[in-house]
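Throughout our pipeline, every protein is held as a single compact record rather than as scattered files. This encoding replaces a full spatial description with a residue-level series of whole-number codes. The remainder of this section carries one protein's record, kept here as part of the documentation.
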Amino acid sequence: MIKQWIDKLTYGMAGCALFFFAIASLFWLTQKHKIEEIKPMQEKVSLPKGPFEQPKEAYAQIAPPVLTLKFSPIRLQLPDLSKILAYYGRNERPDADPETVLMHFSLKGSRDIISIPANAKLFLIYDREEPRSPYHFSENNAPTSLWITARPKDAEAELHVFLTDEQGQMIQKPKSNAKFTIKPRPFSRAGAISQWKIEGNRVDGTLLARQKARWYGKDLFLEAHGGEEFQSVQDKHRIDFNGENAAYSIFVNIGDTLIWNGKRWEIIAPGEKSRKSPLLVVKKVDDRIMNFELWNTEGKIRIPLNLIRSTERWMPQNVIKSFKFVGARTRTQFAFEINGKRMLISPQDWLLYQDGVWVKLDSPEEIDAYVDRRLVGPLFVFEEIGKDEDGNTVLIGTLYSATRSAKERLKLAIQQSGTITAIKDSEEEQEDEDWDDED
């Protein structure tokens, strides 16, 4: 009985709760969802009167100025360029014009190298957008408000810095930045050097080897037989080039200067004509090596070059051993059997050894070809008839090596036991046929 009564009470309370929930929901749906703002009450408050307040007439009698603003424009200062400028020396080519010595400068963080004459203006630009390297050389050296001038001072460069403001007034402070000196740096820009080429060859220490340069020494043949035409090459060293264009030779000594004329090296006196070409200077010559300095046109780059003396196998006795005396045709004509072939030779005859065969140089064209080294090989020059130590008659001559850098004085015996072997008429006729018009 009690349980039933409790269940009825529970159901009744649940029904009442549902009824009130329904009433609340209906009321909420019928009302506007807006929260009214309650404005705080504002009270007008008057400021307290200051103890020093004066009437308006007292303020009107105050004469200006009471407070003024003083305008101070931003003061420019000379920048410290000593730490951002690099000096790569001046143009020290032997042909450099002393009146317009070029000095080479660069800026920190820049690959450009600018060359200017001493005391000329070099203009700069400041770009604050590039904090790593805000200073740049002005394009085409167009005038700006910032510039420098430089002049050589011993090995260093003395620089003066100039700056003007918006009104064109010169800025002169701080004085420590207005004038300073910097030491030269060695030029080691690998990129600039690697881009320098001559005849398509990259310029470095192996340039002469790649141009197929050969140096054996002095040309002893021209010293003895060159005459007035080759007087200028006396006591000079001959260098032979066998480049792609053509083979040629130059004669140099210490202090000589050469320019690259676009096809070959050419000896020229240093001066105005040589300044527009790469310059090669002979610095030192000893028994084994020849030292050069190679300058680019602007005098920015200087590269040392070396040329090692080439060696030549030189066995004069072996070269001349094929000469076998046969007899004398006249007092000045002698027959020799050379490599199985008979030949008449006389003093002042020239015999060239090529491809295992001795050939007499008869025509002026052949002699010129040998002088110009278009014909190359050992040369025997028959010079005179004389006597040896035993009193025998001999034919005296000089044998020059193929490179003409070595020579040997030789004597060919043409007399045995005090008599000269004569060629009989019958033998002479037969020999005339065998000599193939060598007479």
User: Anything to note?
Assistant: The chain has eight helices and 27 strands. The chain has three domains: 85-186, 192-308, 316-434. The first helix runs from residue 2 to 30. Residues 85-186 form one domain.
